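note to self — DONT lose this again. spent like an hour looking for the file last time. sequence + predicted structure for the chain T wanted, 549 res
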Amino acid sequence: MIIQDNVRARRAKWALPAWLLGAIVAVYILAVLNRGLWSELAHALEASRGTPGFWGLSVAVCCRLIGNLVLTLALVIWPRIGKALLALLILVSAASAYYTETFGVHLNEEIIQSIFETTRAEAAALITWAFVGWFLALGVLPAVLVLWVPVRFTPGWRGLGGRGAVILAAVALLVVPPLLTGRNYIYFERNHRGMYDVYNPYAALSGTFHYLQKDVFRKKKAVTPIGMDATLAPNAAMAGRKRVVVLVVGETARAENQSLQGYGRDTNPEMKRADAIYFSDAWSCGTATTVSVPCMFSNMTREKFDKPVAKAHWNALDVLQHAGVDVYWRDNDEGCKDVCARVPNDDLTDAKIARLCDASGCLDEVLLGDLADRIAKMRSPALVVLHIKGSHGPAYFQRYPAEFNVFKPGCDTAEVQTCTYAQTVASYDNTILYTDHILGRVVDTLKAEPEVDSAMMYLSDHGESLGENDIYLHGADWATGPSQQKHIPMLMWLSPGWVRDSGVRLDCMAQRRTQPASQDNLFHTLLGFFDTHTDVYKPELDLLAGCKG
């Protein structure tokens, strides 16, 4: 008992004041776990160098960032729970810093939602040995030290007064310098909001808060129907012939690496042989699946897209099902983001099928096994949506079977930052080649039934960065993100019977394919496939409408 009392006395003697521990943690997070922030900030400020008020602007921005963190720490350092919360902030900052610094990822709201909704296999691909080493050294070890070091708090009103002074100082750092710099700061803040997406731990905490607010705790509203007047035109039955459309929603494919786009490697041999109509100027609605998939199926354009509003309304699948189309969704990529919630659907992401599935997930051929039988059982007209895993990174090498390891040498690890750019691109190109094979098999399945008027359409949800300008993966802000994350492949194949019976002119489509297109077109093109009459249909956004008749 005496020994324990002596130990406690010695620990109390060497205890750090709470404010000093908070200051040490603040310096550590700012200096060590925010190097990506300072790098991005320096790049953003470079454009203002030489202009009047440059140094004042620089000081104001830095003061605001420092004040933000100081305020956060001042609000969490309390007796009993303070050290645990400080340790948690260090762990969150360390994990965030790894991905922002290694892959150039911006932790915006869409990326945070993707993290919460990802599958176990995809999450495991991101937890590499490099991440574990980083997290242990820069996260766990400092957090343990914070938990171990003795701390003393100033008691009573004096302690509260000191905390209040720190909070007021932090608020002053947040408010006063920006006010003094005026319009310079307002302009800078408006045009460089992306820096907060690499600010740790602010980015992760803010993104999580908004995700929970909008997607988890928000009161669920009854879904509002749209297109209740939707009906199928008489010729939707194609003069008694069955009509089938297969829509393939891709993942992480970018236009830049498609041979149909002019890329040097032959990554689209099967679609070239099929004479697919390739739209060379197609763009995504977002740079993450959680945005692009709900957006492309909604009747809203990218500029007006609002995810909660879209979630509370019918989408293209609902309108078509209401009109009389037999709709079916089959998934191999994280789920349908509620798009297929009201239509028959099947998720094979975690299927256990020999030779097609392992611990990393399933190859996209898992979606095709009984596709012909499924189509045969569906009534006419029918729409089948296949949501493929496509080119989902960073473990590109796991997205295709050995026979499609054509472009070599590749990057056989999820730690793509350790591979050369050429190796990363080689593995990525193999994923594009395999996706082309999936599309080829879909077309072959449809060709096998010449008495059926059939069509296939493919578009990716978004693109991907492969290390250009030290940026990897996707999820960048759409307005400022690289074109590789937004310029996507989009194509369609029409059977001879479809062309004949629908009146589509292929010479017209050859001209249309070079004109601008986007995911804004999908809603109306799907309705147009089935000659759907409804007030929500806009023929000017239907890719086929201008080439019929």
